[in-house]
Specification:
This protein is of the alpha+beta class. The chain is built from eight helices and 22 strands. The structure holds 2,5-dihydroxybenzoic acid.
Length: 337
């Protein structure tokens, strides 16, 4: 054994290790992507999601969800290094019972019309394309009073909160938590370009907890009709907290973008892994010599620091979420065109 090896063995007994053998891997020149780029075809996963309702009720499951696991992170319930994604199903008449947890959730509605989620005492009805927020530690339950199955994408910061070991959860003693504000209360107070004078923020999240697709789509159409698309992003917009103009959530950064028909965007990478939903249109995601063809309602993940670009075969709308908001807050977000 060399003198160095002998030294390492001796200090090992005192729970010590040399930095110099590990420095380059602890502090590498640039990020190594975590997870692989992957696409879930909606037409492939939808039958599995619907079949799950023949096996377990939403009540028994608490949340009847099929987790979207990054193929190189199997068993970890992670779509990326910091985020969780799943597809949740609520059949007509079902209720997913009330609970709360320190993780924050977003919902992006894929299918169905008229199911509700109740968050912190207020219900909102969900339609395809709506982006809905469940803030940390707020009571929430979901119900489907409509006559159709409702399916949505869940995005949660589960791995991030687990990293900080700050996970708490509590089940409500009733299936449905109290609803004490009328439908439409939050959009009236906070979602009309108005705010109650003297309003004091009670949460780090946007007080607007449902961003209806109808309004988002109209905004994109108006902008796209009069403006040149960005070369890398097309027409890319952030969902904001109207109280301060920041991202709508403190841990998850949601965006919506319109890519014109026939566009081929320029290569781009950023340090945040992104999960995309194809809301409308179709095309392909290109990564090096790999291309993933996408269609309406497909979901795909691009790990951080992986260069990619898009081509479209129709006017395309993509929803996406990432941990960019956290990286910006702590000053480590980087992007490259
Ligand atoms: O709807 O509260 O996909 O607590 C995972 C954990 C959904 C939810 C998930 C959850 C929820």
């Amino acid at each position: 054994m060399s003198t160095r090896e002998e030294f390492y063995t001796r200090i090992d007994k005192d729970a010590l290790a040399p930095l110099w053998t590990r420095l380059k891997s602890l502090v590498p020149a640039e990020p190594t992507p975590v997870g692989i780029p992957y696409l879930w075809r909606y037409r492939d996963i939808r039958p599995h999601v619907l079949e799950s309702a023949t096996l377990i009720s939403a009540m028994e499951a608490e949340r009847r969800v099929l987790i979207l696991e990054n193929p190189s992170l199997r068993g970890l319930s992670q779509v990326s290094n910091t985020l969780y994604a799943g597809v949740q199903l609520l059949m007509p008449g079902e209720i997913a019972p009330a609970h709360r947890h320190t993780q924050s959730a977003l919902r992006f509605i894929l299918e169905g019309s008229g199911a509700y989620t109740a968050v912190d005492g207020e219900k909102t009805l969900m339609q395809r394309g709506d982006f809905v927020i469940t803030p940390s530690w707020t009571w929430h339950h979901h119900g489907n009073d409509s006559s159709e199955p409702t399916i949505w994408l869940d995005g949660l910061d589960i791995p991030m909160v687990a990293f900080f070991n700050s996970t708490f959860r509590e089940d409500h003693d009733r299936v449905e938590a109290d609803v004490h504000r009328p439908l439409g209360d939050s959009p009236a107070r906070y979602g009309q370009g108005l705010l109650p004078v003297g309003h004091v923020a009670r949460s780090l999240n946007s007080p607007v907890f449902n961003y209806p697709y109808a309004r988002t789509r109209e905004a994109l159409a108006t902008i796209a009709a009069h403006d040149m698309p960005d070369a890398a992003h097309g027409h890319l917009m952030r969902y904001i907290n109207p109280l301060d103009g920041g991202w709508a959530m403190p841990t998850i950064a949601p965006t919506i973008q319109l890519l014109p028909n026939g566009i081929e965007t320029t290569p781009y990478r950023s340090t945040d892994a992104k999960v995309f939903v194809v809301v409308e249109g179709g095309g392909a995601l290109h990564l090096g010599d790999q291309s993933l063809v996408f269609d309406e309602s497909d979901i795909f993940v691009v790990p951080g620091w992986v260069s990619h670009h898009f081509s479209t075969t129709a006017e395309t709308v993509l929803f996406a979420f990432s941990d960019r908001v956290v990286q910006e807050k702590i000053g480590i977000f980087r992007e490259q065109r």
